[in-house]
Design goal:
Layout: H1 2-11, H2 13-34, H3 40-60, H4 64-85
Helix pairs in contact: 2-3, 3-4
Length: about 90
Amino acid sequence: MSGGIDAFIASNMKSLAMTGVVMRIFSFTLVSSMGPQSPFMFVWIFNTADAVPPTWCAALRKDSAYTLLNGFWIRIGIIGMARVGA
């Protein structure tokens, strides 16, 4: 099954990476404009989800630096969701 998903990611890499970037811009704009009234759980979920496409794309490109960086953001997102949900 992963082979099919990898093929889809590879054939749509630029679009998926750009989608992740636009999602990140949106979430940071939301936090910047709303400040403390930001829906923090939504922001953590969204920020974690927006790191997945670029991480997968970087892994397929064998770009270890961006795989590590975006993987880090996924881990931070999971921690953030756990803290907000606690």
